[in-house]
Amino acid sequence: MAGAALVAHGGGPTAVLNASLLGVVEEAREHKQISALYGAKFGISGILEQNFVDLLQQSDETLLSAALTPSSALGTSRREVTEQDLDRVLAIFRAHGVRYFFYNGGNGTMGTAGQIQALARRKGQQLEVVGIPKTIDNDLLATDHAPGYPSAARFFALAARDIGADNLALPGQVEFLEVLGRNVGWLAAATSLARRDADDAPHLIYLPETPLPQEQLLDDVQRVFDRLGRCVVAVCEGQLDEHGEAFGADVRTGSRGSLAMNLGHRLARLITERLNIRARSEKPGLLGRVSSLCIADADWSEARLCGARAVAAAVAGHGGNMVTLRRDENSPEYRIDTALAPLEEVALRERHFPAEWRNAEGNGILPEFQNYVLPLVGEIAPLAQIQDIPVAKRSL
Amino acid sequence: MAGAALVAHGGGPTAVLNASLLGVVEEAREHKQISALYGAKFGISGILEQNFVDLLQQSDETLLSAALTPSSALGTSRREVTEQDLDRVLAIFRAHGVRYFFYNGGNGTMGTAGQIQALARRKGQQLEVVGIPKTIDNDLLATDHAPGYPSAARFFALAARDIGADNLALPGQVEFLEVLGRNVGWLAAATSLARRDADDAPHLIYLPETPLPQEQLLDDVQRVFDRLGRCVVAVCEGQLDEHGEAFGADVRTGSRGSLAMNLGHRLARLITERLNIRARSEKPGLLGRVSSLCIADADWSEARLCGARAVAAAVAGHGGNMVTLRRDENSPEYRIDTALAPLEEVALRERHFPAEWRNAEGNGILPEFQNYVLPLVGEIAPLAQIQDIPVAKRSL
Q: Which of A88, A168, A295, B283 is positioned for an S-S bond with A283, CB 3.0–4.6 A?
């Protein structure tokens, strides 16, 4: 089945989205069934406006440079799709002879991809829709992990280590590191990679899968501070208390649930007001998903691989699926291959952080998680220290 | 004058404070007048508690590893010093035979260094106190710039570029990047290095040296958003409005003036409420001063140089001074040497960002500043883009 192919991005940018784009273009060049490859500018909006860029006419150098660049070279969108939009998408695909559609995004994007595939089949329109996984949240089902997560996880793990070094050098205060994540704590959990011993930051890690009682937070922080005279806390932007409230933070409601917009700040104020300890909060925010300083090696290669495998799957007639990453559990070293999962299986569903990887107190992460995450993120080396060679005190 | 030497850190950590420590140790080894070299743990607090570490017994490898590590390997302090403390410091110096004291910090630290030097002279106690400059704020007088500033400036310039790429890929919203800086805008101004053309982020840059009228902010943002459909704003944590208020942000008063603790967030809310544009804010905060991912090359070398020159100055009997960086204005390429400035000249005084490097509207930075800052920070390369090779629209 020869025809044109189209690739689009959905949802928030990541550090490796453009590596997947490179993979799509490279693989598309290998298949004579693909007569043209278009990129939709700004996701579904670009499709509806026929705002396409020709990807087969890009130079190798351009594609590789873009692939090493964070964010989305095509542009992306959070636009909600209506029934009417779906009809128009198929009409546009017919007009351009688009037979292959690659939609690179998270579980919302996979929902739309599934709707487009289903409608095409109902109408008898020839179309193979294949999803390319992407989410910094790592909340996609059916895949070992999703491209974009490892780089963001590395960013926040390094941030926790470096802010921990600051807190160690200038103690006497509590630092909240607000981590991306409304509903799932995979990124916050990755800050545990910064810990080598019991005194290392982050001393407390909370995940939004579980409500955090305000009194538990106060008790936990007080206990760490009493012991060390300092404390670093990793907490997700979407953390709620035992009443389902955001600790008095501002809340914005969006398409994917509500988001506490200044949570870390509110928690820092709470600590100061209730425990009388100096406290502040840092919120790298979007920088955590697009920092050019922090692209995890494995993430980049796997993102590229997922792009390529999506093309191969579509050409083989396996539309209606998302590419998944499958870890070889029998291999002593980390080894990844891809597989396919039906779009309906991943659409609009969220994979929570497993309860068995959290400690009983609900304020820390167990080592089992590190076995999972370390190969993705890479080692977070402890920072160098000078040797503690003391000088004897003298009487004055 | 043979005797022991002591080095201490004051104020907030930076990415290159440990490079200055390396410079101190390396140079101290070269002078037989220096019989021992101690490091005070946690700044002035460590001096008062005789909490010293032996620095001449550290291995080369340890010192170099630590020097490549952000934060403060000795630990630092913000403790205010009393008259009684000063007497005790001198008594402790006598007890340990300390004849040379190197105090590495900002203008507050230089104030204390000057007090210690003055008291020693009044008492006839042999002591050479030399300041080593350090501040991410770049607000020290008498020096071309201060170690620590270039690395933090690079961090925020890269953050502005990367967040700009995110905003470009997913437009329709306003992003505030909250930059460190209570009273001076040197760091915020450095985000202008991310701009290559008129449409690049950050589109608006405000500095706390000047009040920002709320209506100006709203007008400026609306104008950029109308033109581009997106907007990135760099603003300092200490920015105030025309009434001297922090736009409704929480304010904490500390030893160095007041600090608006959630300013970027308040500004984002203001934009949403008044202009009905989706807005958010990112606050990398302390990560901007200690990120291991962002140590500017020139900064590291110069920090090391300042440490070494402080030792040489003290041994030569030039106590009572701070080492300064002096740029060779006659050299076509960037060339730095050091000089000395009296501690009283820099103590407790602040160097503001020059008004002549700001645009008339007060929302941007002129190219003259880039000539100053580029050699310190290094180039901020524009991110790669794919080529805009459009595909013709077809009738449906």
A: B283
